[in-house]
Amino acid sequence: MHPVRKQRLMIVLFIVVFASVAVGLMAFALRQNINLFYPPSKLINGEAPEGVNIRAGGCVVPGSISRSKTDLAVSFAITDGKGDVTVKYTGILPDLFSEGEAAVVNGQMQGGIFMAEQVLAKHDENYTPVEVAEAMADASAKTGTSHQASCDGMDMSGNKNY
Fold first, then answer.
1. Distance of CA 67 to the CA centre of its chain
2. Based on the domain organization, do 8 and 85 belong to the same domain?
3. Is 148 part of any domain?
4. Which residues span the domain enclosing 16?
Protein backbone atom coordinates (compact mmCIF):
# COMPACT_ATOMS: atom_id res chain seq x y z
CA MET A 1 0.00 0.00 0.00
CA HIS A 2 1.24 3.45 -0.87
CA PRO A 3 2.36 5.49 2.20
CA VAL A 4 -0.01 8.39 1.39
CA ARG A 5 -3.02 6.02 1.21
CA LYS A 6 -1.93 4.33 4.41
CA GLN A 7 -1.73 7.73 6.14
CA ARG A 8 -5.23 8.70 4.87
CA LEU A 9 -6.64 5.35 6.03
CA MET A 10 -5.17 5.86 9.50
CA ILE A 11 -6.66 9.37 9.70
CA VAL A 12 -10.10 8.12 8.64
CA LEU A 13 -9.95 5.25 11.16
CA PHE A 14 -8.88 7.68 13.91
CA ILE A 15 -11.82 9.99 13.10
CA VAL A 16 -14.30 7.09 13.09
CA VAL A 17 -13.03 5.72 16.42
CA PHE A 18 -12.93 9.19 18.02
CA ALA A 19 -16.46 10.01 16.81
CA SER A 20 -17.77 6.66 18.09
CA VAL A 21 -16.23 7.22 21.51
CA ALA A 22 -17.61 10.79 21.66
CA VAL A 23 -21.16 9.66 20.75
CA GLY A 24 -20.97 6.83 23.29
CA LEU A 25 -19.87 9.18 26.08
CA MET A 26 -22.58 11.71 25.23
CA ALA A 27 -25.27 9.02 25.23
CA PHE A 28 -24.02 7.71 28.59
CA ALA A 29 -24.05 11.23 30.09
CA LEU A 30 -27.51 12.10 28.76
CA ARG A 31 -29.29 8.88 29.77
CA GLN A 32 -29.74 10.23 33.32
CA ASN A 33 -31.49 13.35 31.99
CA ILE A 34 -34.20 11.61 29.98
CA ASN A 35 -37.71 12.20 31.34
CA LEU A 36 -40.18 9.72 29.91
CA PHE A 37 -43.89 10.62 29.88
CA TYR A 38 -46.48 8.32 31.46
CA PRO A 39 -50.26 8.86 31.65
CA PRO A 40 -51.93 8.15 35.02
CA SER A 41 -53.34 4.80 33.82
CA LYS A 42 -49.82 3.46 33.22
CA LEU A 43 -48.65 4.82 36.58
CA ILE A 44 -51.33 2.93 38.51
CA ASN A 45 -50.71 -0.24 36.48
CA GLY A 46 -47.08 -0.21 37.62
CA GLU A 47 -45.66 0.33 34.14
CA ALA A 48 -43.61 3.34 35.31
CA PRO A 49 -40.31 2.84 37.14
CA GLU A 50 -40.15 3.72 40.85
CA GLY A 51 -37.52 6.20 42.03
CA VAL A 52 -36.68 7.46 38.53
CA ASN A 53 -37.47 10.97 37.27
CA ILE A 54 -40.42 10.81 34.90
CA ARG A 55 -43.20 13.06 33.61
CA ALA A 56 -46.89 12.44 34.06
CA GLY A 57 -49.86 14.43 32.95
CA GLY A 58 -53.59 14.60 32.84
CA CYS A 59 -56.51 16.66 34.04
CA VAL A 60 -56.65 17.76 37.66
CA VAL A 61 -59.60 15.94 39.23
CA PRO A 62 -62.19 18.43 40.52
CA GLY A 63 -62.37 18.45 44.31
CA SER A 64 -59.05 16.68 44.75
CA ILE A 65 -56.84 19.66 45.64
CA SER A 66 -55.94 19.84 49.32
CA ARG A 67 -53.49 22.40 50.66
CA SER A 68 -51.55 22.29 53.90
CA LYS A 69 -52.32 25.03 56.42
CA THR A 70 -48.73 25.21 57.69
CA ASP A 71 -46.56 25.11 54.57
CA LEU A 72 -46.65 25.05 50.76
CA ALA A 73 -47.51 21.35 50.51
CA VAL A 74 -50.38 20.50 48.21
CA SER A 75 -51.94 17.21 47.18
CA PHE A 76 -54.16 16.60 44.15
CA ALA A 77 -55.11 13.87 41.72
CA ILE A 78 -54.64 13.78 37.95
CA THR A 79 -56.58 11.58 35.55
CA ASP A 80 -56.50 10.47 31.93
CA GLY A 81 -60.01 9.05 32.03
CA LYS A 82 -58.86 5.51 32.82
CA GLY A 83 -57.15 6.05 36.17
CA ASP A 84 -56.33 8.62 38.84
CA VAL A 85 -52.95 9.20 40.47
CA THR A 86 -52.38 11.19 43.66
CA VAL A 87 -49.68 13.83 43.31
CA LYS A 88 -47.90 15.47 46.23
CA TYR A 89 -45.99 18.70 45.65
CA THR A 90 -44.33 21.27 47.90
CA GLY A 91 -43.96 24.69 46.35
CA ILE A 92 -45.84 27.45 44.61
CA LEU A 93 -48.24 26.22 41.96
CA PRO A 94 -48.50 28.00 38.59
CA ASP A 95 -51.14 30.74 38.33
CA LEU A 96 -53.16 28.80 35.75
CA PHE A 97 -53.23 25.61 37.82
CA SER A 98 -56.80 24.75 38.82
CA GLU A 99 -59.29 21.91 39.04
CA GLY A 100 -60.41 20.48 35.72
CA GLU A 101 -57.39 21.87 33.87
CA ALA A 102 -54.53 20.01 32.21
CA ALA A 103 -51.29 19.69 34.17
CA VAL A 104 -47.93 18.00 33.65
CA VAL A 105 -45.83 17.01 36.66
CA ASN A 106 -42.15 16.07 36.84
CA GLY A 107 -40.97 13.83 39.66
CA GLN A 108 -40.86 10.24 40.88
CA MET A 109 -43.31 7.50 41.76
CA GLN A 110 -42.93 6.37 45.37
CA GLY A 111 -45.30 3.79 46.79
CA GLY A 112 -48.18 4.55 44.43
CA ILE A 113 -47.95 8.32 44.98
CA PHE A 114 -46.31 10.68 42.51
CA MET A 115 -43.87 12.97 44.36
CA ALA A 116 -43.66 16.00 42.07
CA GLU A 117 -40.65 18.29 41.89
CA GLN A 118 -42.27 20.55 39.31
CA VAL A 119 -45.85 21.25 38.25
CA LEU A 120 -46.61 22.74 34.84
CA ALA A 121 -50.02 24.08 33.84
CA LYS A 122 -51.38 25.03 30.45
CA HIS A 123 -50.49 28.56 29.44
CA ASP A 124 -53.76 29.76 27.91
CA GLU A 125 -57.36 28.69 27.61
CA ASN A 126 -56.87 26.80 24.32
CA TYR A 127 -53.64 24.89 25.04
CA THR A 128 -53.28 21.34 26.31
CA PRO A 129 -49.77 19.85 26.57
CA VAL A 130 -49.03 17.49 23.68
CA GLU A 131 -48.38 14.52 25.96
CA VAL A 132 -51.65 15.07 27.82
CA ALA A 133 -53.63 15.46 24.59
CA GLU A 134 -52.15 12.22 23.22
CA ALA A 135 -52.88 10.32 26.44
CA MET A 136 -56.46 11.63 26.47
CA ALA A 137 -56.90 10.71 22.80
CA ASP A 138 -55.64 7.18 23.49
CA ALA A 139 -58.01 6.84 26.45
CA SER A 140 -60.99 8.08 24.47
CA ALA A 141 -60.15 5.83 21.50
CA LYS A 142 -60.00 2.75 23.72
CA THR A 143 -63.21 3.57 25.59
CA GLY A 144 -65.10 4.85 22.54
CA THR A 145 -65.91 8.23 24.09
CA SER A 146 -65.40 11.64 22.51
CA HIS A 147 -62.10 13.38 23.17
CA GLN A 148 -62.01 16.90 24.54
CA ALA A 149 -58.84 18.91 23.82
CA SER A 150 -59.17 20.77 27.09
CA CYS A 151 -60.26 19.52 30.48
CA ASP A 152 -62.24 22.67 31.36
CA GLY A 153 -65.20 21.52 33.41
CA MET A 154 -65.38 18.26 31.50
CA ASP A 155 -64.83 14.70 32.54
CA MET A 156 -63.18 12.42 30.00
CA SER A 157 -66.54 11.30 28.58
CA GLY A 158 -67.41 14.85 27.55
CA ASN A 159 -70.04 15.42 30.25
CA LYS A 160 -70.15 18.71 32.12
CA ASN A 161 -69.07 18.54 35.79
CA TYR A 162 -71.03 21.59 36.94
1. 23
2. no
3. no
4. 3-32
The alpha carbon torsion through 86, 89, 95, 100 (nearest 10 deg) reads: 0
pTM for this prediction: 0.63
Residue type present at position 133: A
CA dihedral 94, 99, 103, 109 (to 10 degrees): 100
Verify that 63 and 8 share a domain, yes or no.
no
Residue 74 shares a structural domain with residue 59: yes
- Let me know whether 57 and 103 are in one domain: yes
**153 is a domain residue:** no
Q: Which of 62, 125, 56 is nearest to 88 (CA)?
A: 56
The tens-digit pLDDT sequence of the chain (162 residues) is: 788 899 999 999 999 999 999 999 988 888 766 778 888 988 888 888 888 888 998 889 999 999 999 999 999 999 988 888 999 999 998 888 888 888 999 999 888 899 999 999 866 556 666 777 777 777 777 766 554 445 654 444 333 332
Q: Are residues 42 and 116 in the same domain?
A: yes
CB of 115 within 8 A of CB of 105? Answer: no
